[in-house]
Amino acid sequence: MMDAKIFFSQELLSWFHIHKRTLPWRQNRDPYRVWVSEIMLQQTRVDTVIPYYERFMARFPTVAALAAAPEEEVLKCWEGLGYYSRARNLQAGAQEVVERYGGVIPDDAEAVAGLKGIGPYTRGAVMSIAFNRAEPAVDGNVMRVLSRYFCLEDDIAKNKTRIQLEKLAVSLIPDGHAGDFNQALMELGALVCTPKSPGCLTCPVMEHCAGRLAGKELVLPIKTKAKPPREERRLAAIVEGSGSQTGKVLVRQRPASGLLARMWELPHVLDGAAGAESKPARGRKRTVRTNRPQEHTDALPEQEVLRMERLGLALAVESRLLARPLAHWMEAEHVFSHIIWKLDIYRCEFGFVLEEEERQRLEHSYEVTARGEMLASEAPSSYTLHRLDGEYPGPEDAGSWAYTGRASGLPDEALTAAAGIATGTWTEVEAEELQEERQQQLPEGYRWISREDMDELAFPNVFLRILNSYWEQQS
Ligand code: SF4
User: Would the pTM of this model clear 0.85, i.e. be above it?
Assistant: First the structure.
């Protein structure tokens, strides 16, 4: 085994000196540059990272520059790269470096490990590449290479195996060459010992590779499958402004913590009844008039109508937005590690922002769970039982804004609460004035944006795609 280890280290290092790729973060060993690159490279391909890295380093060339930047700018610079908590943690770590270490990343493994967002792998990468310390940097690529070369059949999904492989990796580091050796290991995993088609014939260590000799290069590493991500159906709204907000759409900022914290997005709601309605459509068509009856009349499938109703109601109950879904715009998907959002996006006409009292009356009348989500078991039956036959009222009908309430069986008093303006006591002029006034009183975190405003706000990829397609269509 000893010979195989020495052979591995020497051959790998020699190979790396000849074959290493020229990458922007390899220009020098500045620990800040190494740190940024390693964070960006987590779960992301090198080709994708390069332009982001160059832009990020041009905008935030030092730890101090990153620490002092507004978070919105950092997120904007990261926009499209995904896993946004990495950007927030990186900035928090930079602020710690400024506060605790005067802006200089310390040559101290414990101190580096204590920075926000730095786990065992990043600590090893920064300490070895920037400071040439003999620290292991074991990620998925490295675990694959070591499992194959040493023919190890332990489950690499287990923490215990990772710790064992870290010990093995550190024992392989040639004296004085920690940085190059760790990069060589990563490079071999990325270029030669790839997951599905290892290039054993061109591999510098094939001669002593126990996995290959045992014919197990395609079997190893052993990795138990992670739980598949949970699918979540969501309904999203492109709410279009009117009056002074014509040409704009409504967006909101996510809460300060949790998934996609502080990123901007279109309003969207969990489609609580999605499971219950997944039975095949009955094929019955129902005529739904859009808010611009002179344009066209669409015949929509039953389930589509139900979805639009649910979206309208949920926006009212969850966000105080009385908005009327007009038409399906597109489908989109956003994959997180533990969850997949399946989004159905609807163009919506903006009505009013409900007063809290009105919202509460709606909520009271409508079955919601403790989390403010519709009960899947309740929603479809209540829609079915109470929906009016025939067409939805059009905008010329004073009650058009009440249609969601009416269609889903809300009692008259909730209907009135949801659309006080639509009860017939307002003239058209008064209605427009009230709409204009209430258009300005958005719930906290919401705002109207034009296409140009997108330049300042950071959106997750999925909403970037949706909004860009929307602006394209409008132009
Ligand atoms: S010989 Fe094949 S399996 Fe072994 S390390 Fe090289 S590429 Fe991987």
Answer: no
